[in-house]
Input
Amino acid sequence: MAAQYIDFLTLKYLLDKVHGLPSLLQLERYQDHNMESMELFLDAVKEFSDRELFPFFREMDQFPAEFREGEVMVHKQVGVIMKKGGEMGLICGPFDYEIGGLQLPFIVHTAAMYVMDAANNHLPGHLTLTLGAAELITHFGNSDLKETYISKMLSGEWGGTMCLTEPDAGSSLSDITTKAIPQQKGYHLIKGQKIFISGGDYPYVENIVHLVLARIEGAPAGTKGISLFVVPKLRLEGGELVKNDVSTLADFEKMGQRGFATTHLGFGDHNNCRGWLVGEAHQGLKYMFQMMNDARIGVGRGAGAIAMAAYQASLAYARERTQGRKLRSSGKKDPMEKPCLIIEHPDVRRMLLLQKTIAEGSLGLILLAAKYHDLALAKKDSETKKKYEYLLEIITPIVKTYPSEAGARAVSNGLQVLGGYGFCSDYILQQYYRDIRIYSIYEGTTGIQSQDLLGRKVLMDNGKALEFLLNEIHTTITEAIAMDSLIPYAKILGDKIKLIQEVTAYLMPIAKQGDYERFLADATVFMEFMGNLVLGWVWLDIALKAESDLRAKDKTYSTPFYQSKIHAMKFYFKYKLIKTNALADIIMHKDGLTLKAGGDYF
Amino acid sequence: MAAQYIDFLTLKYLLDKVHGLPSLLQLERYQDHNMESMELFLDAVKEFSDRELFPFFREMDQFPAEFREGEVMVHKQVGVIMKKGGEMGLICGPFDYEIGGLQLPFIVHTAAMYVMDAANNHLPGHLTLTLGAAELITHFGNSDLKETYISKMLSGEWGGTMCLTEPDAGSSLSDITTKAIPQQKGYHLIKGQKIFISGGDYPYVENIVHLVLARIEGAPAGTKGISLFVVPKLRLEGGELVKNDVSTLADFEKMGQRGFATTHLGFGDHNNCRGWLVGEAHQGLKYMFQMMNDARIGVGRGAGAIAMAAYQASLAYARERTQGRKLRSSGKKDPMEKPCLIIEHPDVRRMLLLQKTIAEGSLGLILLAAKYHDLALAKKDSETKKKYEYLLEIITPIVKTYPSEAGARAVSNGLQVLGGYGFCSDYILQQYYRDIRIYSIYEGTTGIQSQDLLGRKVLMDNGKALEFLLNEIHTTITEAIAMDSLIPYAKILGDKIKLIQEVTAYLMPIAKQGDYERFLADATVFMEFMGNLVLGWVWLDIALKAESDLRAKDKTYSTPFYQSKIHAMKFYFKYKLIKTNALADIIMHKDGLTLKAGGDYF
Output
């Protein structure tokens, strides 16, 4: 298939020049890797995606996952990706050597998964869920659990899932009712149902290992009484795999991402479902949330990748499709003139630049979070470690949300570029449009991410995480001010930092007065504000590196390539960053219009 | 079906109190109607929609229009709506008595169609297209054409379509190539293909009358060489209906509105397709565009109605679904407390209020345009007539665009209210989400509407139309200033009027210099600016009427009903109107970032 789904050059540029992968590889943890091996790895992933992912993207939508006689039927490529992906190190990559991993920088792993998400977002989730489940066992499980599960999971022979949501609990994990009844022999009997379990069942692996949140009998109410269990579909008994009373009750039919099954699972319908406690009792939610950052970055990554793929599809269309004519100075068009390519129309260029800035900016942001993950992990000095941990904490809800929300708008613009064809099933844009819509719901909705950002991350350690973030932004501003052509943009971003301080100075007293409902009422607006602003920073950073390379006459990338990045930054500042002022005004408008107190109003 | 798809009370309130239907009915043209008969009519339409439209909404998506052996199969309700709709006056309603119409105010007809669109947007288009086609014949056709077609069309026995778009022309009508070859006997032979023809074929009517844009052999290039023809599927010969060599070549499969066929039609494959010229040669596009205002209002109406239906569905869900708990002043939640309804969470209320303000505000705007149509038609004094014609001209692209663009965002928020369920096929929100996406493409994309608004309507008659519009807005401001509680909002809107003047003062010299490309480069941003602002006016007007009725202790509607309208206005001003400043800044930022001149940049 000749169609492009990714700007691979920009991906490499962001890794190499903007996020400084070469210097990251100097860290002890990554010393066995080098730029050449990393490029070979990414090239292999790209080639694999060209061959095994992208060609099946349309048909996984047309022939979605289907529930038949107690089993979920999914596309055969799910088997291919688990097998080949396992072999290629796409599950074990980020793990430590001692557990069978490759100690691959998370930023490189993230880039690899991004390529695959862009090629076919219905498939990589099978790998990342298996990775996440294995990570929980690795970090918190005892040696028995590790021995039984890890190598099978890292190789892709066994799959993994995360089972949090229940029919009546939704986003409210404190209401989980799945029960765990302690048994003599070191396991618990599990009883309950879980819904919205992505990749919860597929026939192409030997076994599926569910990481299940449940409440041990007698545990306290709320989130503090939740424990984490390993509950395999098949359990080992005398060296044999036998059924563990895990059943698939249904598959949710969805508007998009239809090839990636979303299942309803039953545990212990016949009182014979065994689960093994991970770590200590009642610590389940804590464990889960320690792993959640990566899962959330993964969601942002998936959404960002779809925005990228949609941008490539729109761009290709706009470069081929002729329609209409350029306006002449009279305001008229000359019908005798040949129709022009639609990419010459300013309105089409505006839509494409919007797509570009959101797609590439999101990618820059996603890789930045992955870099923080690497630095937090690989740095030895505890102060430095803490700094990157905090940066990761505060940026994660934004990395999850910005690509999901802005990405959906970017894809919608992309569909619009195609006009009526964009709405038609024969064109790929409508599938991206449907697929991307789930990302602002996955792993905590935008509303929940926003409460996390404002209610936890901004407040944590007396605002220390936010302080670290503002320092990072400030560093970029200082560097940009050294380049005269960037001074106006550096100044704008400097003003925006002051605006953040103004907004938080307004909000903090409300939190201190204990009026949390009001404090968090516009958390989602705060998220939009911060997301827009952080993207402005990401773009200034990209432009700064491009400008430096242009001045240094670095020929790694072409002059038009560097110029296009600077142009995109200018576009972003003009069309998007400017909106942060209005968002700040909304947040600082203390009227309680969305609080219940005043009346029903609907 | 118990589910609500419309706030019928608000519809009646907007007609009665906000847009003053009683005084409209005083006009001579409408003197046979009164409020009672209008209410009975709307009640009958609502009852019809409850029974024959809404119950089939989901299944028309699940079993979409399908092309089989040269024919398009559509749901049987298409037949019901044509037959019953014809009988109920839903086609003939707005026509003059002399042609067989009811001289129904267009605002009432629009309200009726809105109810039906909200109930099932896959169906009413069959009626409105027939109406539009009949209107073209009525206005521009000779008596033979009128006699042959009108009564059959107004009764719904024959359907009608509009055939503009061609495979290679898209939005660029000047490139139309369908040929019309003059014959001796008063007709032309038609030869060509048309795509994206909504309701282009269905088996439940005797005949379908296509209004086709074509180029008479030897006609000049461009839009000035286009003529309009009546091309029936079956033509009358000796009192018999015989085939007219119109064939259905395909049906476009789409992401949404799948029950409303979008066809690809062939004319004259066997050189035996006859078309009858409507009006004069080479005037086709002019005729078409004289009817286009109503078609564009119809598109805005459809989108607004979907936003309304989605709002009702989200609201019902939020009133039933419990999840999570209110935050206490400690910032913690008490897990022993019962979960609350999600409508109590500020973020959910924010999303619902956003839906409400967009849905109800769009309805207010749509009805306003319909009222201008009525006043332009029914007023006798030529100056007054001109004023309303101009108001209709300038507001139409906004009425087409705002509900389509903002409506899609409202529906997306509505989907988000349902969390994961919103994405699932079992819930109705995802269908609204898919269906509404076509509206910003239909009948001229948002880009085209925006160029129409800024490039034609703002400039027309030296800015006279804009002047009329600003005067109207100013009248509302003056009235609002008389109510102390509304003064702050009246002042804000007053400032926005100045902002419009500032923006146009900035843009006009660019147009005068002949730099049309730059002048129109951000036309879409100008559209968003004007749309947001006009909605602010619509909401201030609604709040003004509500406040008056509250003060007058008018009990027609309840106190909480009036209060909810005032609250919605405040919400709209805080969350949406505020964004106009940034939009104005974007427009007044003269940098040509989207012009081609500087380089490729992608």
Notes: The mean pLDDT of chain A is 95. Chain A touches chain B through 104 residues (CB under 8 Å). Residues 424 and 430 of chain A are 7 Å apart (CA to CA).
